[in-house]
Every structure is written in structure tokens, then in C-alpha cells.
Inverse folding.
């Protein structure tokens, strides 16, 4: 450290703030901001990939695949996202543990479900009891990313499916008239034109994804909400070198500004992207966006 | 004279309506066949049946001496052999009323797309001939523009270049000037006239009697899904025999 | 089985609003218990949802008109309001408002009721749904064909007459479906 923070009570105001904002706990707070960004950076592309996969499935000629794709898109659409978050993480976690339980402890006799509790044998616990705090954190975080990706992937699937349907029929018919086969028509015409129809929906979804990130807190991740409450709470000199009153208001104000910046920035980028993609195409993206 | 397309008693029903009630015709190599008739007479459907975009229910469609092979009968009838469909579609290039240029591709890409992906011709060569064609129809400077940045007339000329780039046996033109303002119509008509003069085989559906008279070697008057009268343009336009054609030309 | 479940519903169905049994069953929590308790919690959803939506509907109309206003300050304020409530997570808004009201309470005891969920959360939900609806209304207002406004001008309608007989109806008509879809999403646990 460039400046000396060894005895904070003797520092002037500016130095005190600098030292306060760079103490160990705050570094963890900054890491938790990074967690949000990592979550966004991973969940978004995985969701898009999964969404494309589902949409292609739902558009396929083979009827069982078609039904499966449509079904997945439909059920995820019909149920509010927060219900999925709560249900999914628990289901995923318990599902994994249950599979391990069956394979690792075949001679376990007690019932797994005891009232509201879910009990599996020691060896099946995920992560293992002996694992460090960090492993627990990482496991939880991965579970969260998987949850976000699957839920938003299904939403994206719905968007892509609608976009594929929105490609004008005469564009496809013309391709037929020129002898392109169904596969060529799909990949060279529908798939390429689909993006512009999907973009408004995807922009919307991205905004929803950003605003859903504080749900990490509900999943038990030590995220920015957790740390804002933790760091903002009043501190007496007995527990910290930096005693202060209840500052949670200011920490949450910071979070509001953080999210506002993030959405505003996304809006700018997405606007630019829309303009670039709509360049020369039949309709202005703005008109289309307004319909959302 | 070599026959490119021959139809024998072709019938087509849409639910509740009989669109084509037995149409027989021949289109010859190097000639222009014009299909005229009131709206709803089945002209466009006939053209789409020829290109197999629409399945006819009965009758024969013979492309260069080879009849299309079918499976199923009636409304369930469809072409049996995908290769044959591909051959017909690549050798008969369609020009649509609404141009139907692919909106995500530039003009040059539009022209190059099918010859490269479907016919697997060498991209360099195709591009070269595409540029020649764009020059011929007078929109070379728009080659990198996107369809919606062009006027209707320019789009239609691009669509004609796209059709020609397939080096087809014949062009099928479906009301190529109907969606255009009178002013823009002229530039497309002049391109079509040039093609006719060069001896391009064309089957054209049109409401423009003057155009039909100027370029056609054979005019076919369709009414209610049937050929009412046909012949060379002089006779059709100067000495129509059927009452319906007389009334149609008078209107 | 069904009978015991009915009993459980009787006992705990209204628990979330302070009626019936207070103490949760210690043993034997069945699926029925869980469903009843969750369902009981949803009563709050309905209260919050309906109240916030009704109030928000009217406030949203004002906000959208404000945003379109020629008065620059009014327009800017409405725009910022919409931006803040649409651009940040509801979850964070709740926390922020709670701590804001806590601080205010210390200075002014009048703010005491605001720190309890029934009022504090209601206000945030109200603002939130207002902002989202206002955005939809604004989009509808802008989408009204220019020619119709010109026509009403040409018949000499005053601004208020124009709003009442042309714009307001058109706005509702254009916004209705999107609004209903949004309300539906809103009513589900948020």
C-alpha cells in the first residue's frame, strides 16, 4: 500500500476514506461486483447458445425433437422466473446429491426425505463437508450460473423461435424458387435474417438479466447485496478500526448507481448494434423496438 | 422449334376454388410467351406451378421433353424426384412481383448467392458475370447497397440480374412491373425489351398490354383458369375472336 | 388426507395477515403445510399487486404526459424518474428504500410506518409499476399517427379536448395489450 493505514483514527478525512475503502472487506466487496459481471459474461453467451439450440430443435422437421423444444420453451415461459430460481437451484443441488447418494452409498436405509429436510449420506454431500469455504462458494456460484443460463436460455429460445417465424415467407419462397435446399434455406436465409427480429427481444432479455443478478443473494451467494448490508451496517470501535454509523443507505445508493450505469451503457451499445444490423434492411430498428 | 416447357391439361384447386381448370400450352426456346387475363384468372398460379412452387393437382408438366414425375394424386400430388425439382428450379429463374430480394444481402451478394450455393459454380467467375449483368441492367454502382436502399425499379432490375446469373433456360416473370410507379416501370420495361431482342426465352405474366404486344411471340389469354384464346400478338390484339377477350381488351 | 389438508388451510391460510394459528407446526411439515403457507404469503402479493397497479395506472398516465411535455424541466424529471425505476433491480430498490426510510425515521418520527412492509414496499412497487407503465404509455402517445393530431388541431380543439377525446383513447387502445401482458407478469411473485 502506498499510504499508511496502520492507525486509522489519526488520519485526516480523505486518507481515512481511502484506507477505509481499500480495507480487506472492501476488496471482497469489489470482488463481488466482479462476480456480477462474471455471471453476466458467462450466463449471456451460454443462454444464447442454449436458446439457439432450443429454437433450432423447435423448428426441426423431426417431430419428437420439435415437440421437446416447444415444450421446454413453453413451460419455462409460463412460470415466473423467480419461482424457477428458487426451485431450480434446490432441484439441481438435490438432484446431483441424490444421484451421488444412490451410486456412492447403496446400503443406506433411512429415507432421504424427512419432513422438510433432505438427507443424504456424508459421501454424497456436495461439496464434501471437508471442502474449504472457497470450494463451497465456487460450487454455489457455478450452480447459480447454470440456473441463470438455463432459465434465460429458455427465454432466449422463445425469442429466437419467434424471430425465425417472423422471417417473411416470400424471402424463403424465393430461395426455394432458386433451388436452395431446406438446410441451405435455414442457415443462409432464415438464420441470418432472424437476428434482426430477435434483437429487440434479446435486448430486453439482457436488461432483465442485469436486473436479475441481485437474485444471487437469494441463492445464498455472498454477492453485492450481501456485502452492502454487511459493510454498511453500523460498526463500533470494538469490532473495527473504522467505526461508523449506519451507512447502508449509501451502499445501496452506490448499487443503484452501479446498476443504472450498467443498464444505460447496455442501452447505448444495443442501440448502436441495432442500427448497424438494420442498416439497409427493410425496417428501422427503432420502430420495431418501440413495440416492445 | 425446341419446346422448353409444355403443359398438358394442368389443373389446380385451392380449397373451394378451382384456379386452373385444364391448361395446355407450349413455350418455345428463344421466344416470349405472354400470359394475360383479368386478376384472379390464375396467371400467377400457373407460373408458380411451372416452377413447382405450387403443386398442380392433375396434368403433365414437361420440362425439355422430360415430364415431371409425381407421387400421390389430386391435392396430395407432389414431385417424386427432388433432383428433378432442383433441375427445373435452377433452369427456370423466377422474377417476382415484389422483387423478393434477400434483405440481408447486398445487391451483388443477392445475384451471386444461388449460383454459388446451389450450382456450386466458382465464386470468382460468378462475381464477374454478376457484375456484367448488373452493368447491363444499369445498376452497377449499387452493387454494394442493400435492397431497401434502392427504388422499386432498381430492385426489380437487380432481381432480373439475379435471375439471369443462373444462366437459365427461361425466365419466369410474374407481373414484374405491377408493383412499380409508372415512371419506374419504364426502366424495367426497357430491360425486359432488351432481353427479348436478344432472344431470351421468357414466360411473362403481365397486365401491361403494350408490353405484351411489343415483345411477345405468343400471347395466351386466361380466364377463370382456362385458356380462352391464344395466338400471335397481332391477331390477339387486333382481331380477338372471343367475347371475353374483346371485353377484356376494351376495359 | 384431503380433510386434514382442509384443516391445515383453515389454520394457516390467513396466517400471513395475522389471523389463525401463529406458531408454525414443529413436526410433520407435509406438502400441504408448505403449499398453504406459500399460498398464504401470496395474499400479500395480491394486496400489493392490486393496490400498486391501480395507483400506478393513474400515476403512469401523468408521468407519460409529463415526459412528453414541452416544459423542459418537467419532461426531464419524468424521464429521470422512469429511467431510475426501470433501470435498476426492484430488489435493490426495496433495500434502498427501506434504509432510506430508516434514516428518515430517525430524523422525523412521522416516517415510522414507512419502514413496515405494508407501506414501504407498497410505495416502491407503486413507483416501479408506474415507471414501467409510463414507458408503455409514452410509446403509445408517440405512436399516435401525426395526421390524427393535425386533424383535431384543424377542428380547433383545445389541448385538453384533444387529449380527452383523441389522444387518451388512442393511447389506451395502443397500450392496452402490452400493459395487460406486463400486469400479468407483475402479479406473479416478483
Amino acid at each position: 500500500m502506498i499510504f499508511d493505514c496502520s492507525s486509522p483514527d489519526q488520519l485526516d478525512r480523505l486518507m481515512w476514506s481511502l484506507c477505509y475503502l481499500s480495507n480487506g472487506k472492501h476488496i471482497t466487496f469489489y470482488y463481488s461486483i466482479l462476480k456480477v459481471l462474471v455471471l453476466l459474461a458467462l450466463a449471456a453467451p451460454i443462454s444464447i447458445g442454449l436458446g439457439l439450440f432450443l429454437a433450432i430443435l423447435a423448428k426441426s422437421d423431426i417431430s419428437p425433437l420439435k415437440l421437446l423444444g416447444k415444450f421446454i420453451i413453453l413451460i419455462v415461459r409460463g412460470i415466473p422466473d423467480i419461482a424457477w430460481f428458487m426451485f431450480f437451484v434446490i432441484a439441481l443441488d438435490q438432484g446431483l446429491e441424490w444421484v451421488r447418494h444412490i451410486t456412492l452409498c447403496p446400503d443406506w436405509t433411512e429415507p432421504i426425505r424427512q419432513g422438510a429436510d433432505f438427507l443424504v449420506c456424508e459421501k454424497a454431500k456436495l461439496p464434501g463437508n471437508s471442502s474449504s469455504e472457497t470450494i463451497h462458494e465456487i460450487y454455489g456460484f457455478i450452480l447459480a450460473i447454470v440456473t441463470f443460463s438455463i432459465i434465460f436460455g429458455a427465454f432466449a429460445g422463445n425469442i429466437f423461435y419467434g424471430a425465425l417465424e417472423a422471417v417473411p415467407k416470400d424471402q424463403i419462397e424465393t430461395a426455394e424458387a432458386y433451388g436452395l435446399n431446406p438446410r441451405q434455406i435455414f442457415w443462409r436465409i432464415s438464420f441470418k435474417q432472424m437476428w434482426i427480429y430477435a434483437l429487440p427481444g434479446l435486448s430486453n432479455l439482457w436488461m432483465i438479466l442485469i436486473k436479475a443478478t441481485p437474485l444471487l443473494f437469494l441463492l445464498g451467494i455472498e454477492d453485492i447485496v450481501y456485502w452492502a448490508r454487511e459493510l454498511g451496517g453500523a460498526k463500533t470501535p470494538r469490532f473495527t478500526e473504522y467505526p461508523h454509523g449506519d451507512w447502508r443507505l449509501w451502499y445501496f445508493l452506490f448499487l443503484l448507481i452501479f446498476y443504472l450505469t450498467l443498464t444505460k451503457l447496455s442501452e447505448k451499445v444495443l442501440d448502436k448494434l441495432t442500427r448497424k444490423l438494420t442498416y439497409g434492411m427493410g425496417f428501422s430498428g427503432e420502430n420495431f423496438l418501440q413495440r416492445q | 422449334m425446341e419446346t422448353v416447357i409444355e403443359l398438358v391439361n394442368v389443373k389446380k384447386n385451392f380449397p373451394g376454388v378451382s384456379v386452373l381448370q385444364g391448361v395446355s400450352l407450349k413455350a418455345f426456346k428463344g421466344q416470349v410467351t405472354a400470359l394475360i387475363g383479368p386478376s384472379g384468372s390464375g396467371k400467377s398460379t400457373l407460373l408458380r406451378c411451372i416452377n413447382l412452387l405450387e403443386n398442380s393437382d392433375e396434368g403433365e408438366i414437361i420440362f425439355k421433353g422430360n415430364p415431371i414425375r409425381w407421387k400421390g394424386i389430386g391435392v396430395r400430388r407432389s414431385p417424386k424426384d427432388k433432383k428433378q425439382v432442383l433441375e427445373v428450379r435452377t433452369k427456370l429463374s423466377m422474377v417476382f412481383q415484389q422483387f423478393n430480394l434477400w434483405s440481408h444481402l447486398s445487391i451483388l451478394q443477392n445475384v451471386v448467392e444461388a449460383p454459388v450455393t446451389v450450382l456450386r459454380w466458382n465464386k470468382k467467375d460468378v462475381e464477374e458475370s454478376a457484375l456484367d449483368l448488373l452493368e447491363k441492367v444499369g445498376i452497377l454502382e449499387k452493387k454494394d447497397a442493400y435492397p431497401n436502399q434502392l427504388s422499386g425499379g432498381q430492385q426489380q432490375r437487380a432481381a432480373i440480374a439475379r435471375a439471369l446469373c443462373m444462366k437459365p433456360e427461361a425466365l419466369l416473370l410474374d407481373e414484374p412491373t405491377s408493383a412499380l410507379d409508372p415512371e419506374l416501370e419504364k426502366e424495367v420495361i426497357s430491360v425486359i425489351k432488351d432481353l427479348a431482342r436478344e432472344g431470351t426465352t421468357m414466360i411473362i405474366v403481365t397486365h401491361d398490354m403494350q408490353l405484351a404486344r411489343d415483345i411477345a411471340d405468343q400471347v395466351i389469354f386466361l380466364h377463370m383458369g382456362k385458356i380462352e384464346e391464344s395466338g400471335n400478338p397481332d391477331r390477339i390484339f387486333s382481331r380477338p375472336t372471343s367475347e371475353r377477350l374483346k371485353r377484356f381488351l376494351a376495359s | 388426507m384431503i380433510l386434514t389438508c382442509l384443516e391445515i388451510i383453515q389454520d394457516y391460510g390467513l396466517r400471513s395477515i395475522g389471523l389463525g394459528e401463529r406458531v408454525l407446526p414443529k413436526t410433520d411439515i407435509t406438502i400441504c403445510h408448505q403449499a398453504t403457507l406459500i399460498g398464504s404469503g401470496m395474499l400479500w402479493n395480491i394486496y400489493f399487486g392490486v393496490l400498486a397497479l391501480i395507483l400506478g395506472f393513474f400515476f403512469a398516465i401523468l408521468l407519460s404526459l409529463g415526459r412528453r411535455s414541452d416544459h423542459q424541466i418537467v419532461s426531464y424529471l419524468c424521464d429521470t424518474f422512469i429511467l431510475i425505476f426501470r433501470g435498476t433491480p426492484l430488489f435493490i430498490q426495496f433495500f434502498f428504500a427501506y434504509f432510506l426510510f430508516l434514516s428518515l425515521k430517525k430524523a422525523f418520527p412521522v416516517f415510522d410506518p414507512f419502514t413496515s412492509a405494508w407501506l414501504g414496499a407498497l410505495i416502491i412497487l407503486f413507483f416501479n409499476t408506474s415507471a414501467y407503465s409510463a414507458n408503455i404509455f409514452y410509446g403509445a402517445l408517440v405512436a399516435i399517427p401525426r395526421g390524427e393530431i393535425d386533424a383535431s388541431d384543424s377542428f380547433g380543439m383545445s389541448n385538453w379536448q384533444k387529449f380527452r377525446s383523441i389522444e387518451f383513447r388512442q393511447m389506451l387502445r395502443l397500450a392496452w395489450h402490452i400493459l395487460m401482458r406486463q400486469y400479468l407478469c407483475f402479479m406473479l411473485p416478483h
Notes: Residues 31-59+66-227 of chain A form a domain with the MetI-like fold fold (CATH 1.10.3720.10). The interface with chain B takes residues 170-171, 173-181, 184, 188-189, 192-193, 196, 279-282 of chain A (CB under 8 Å).
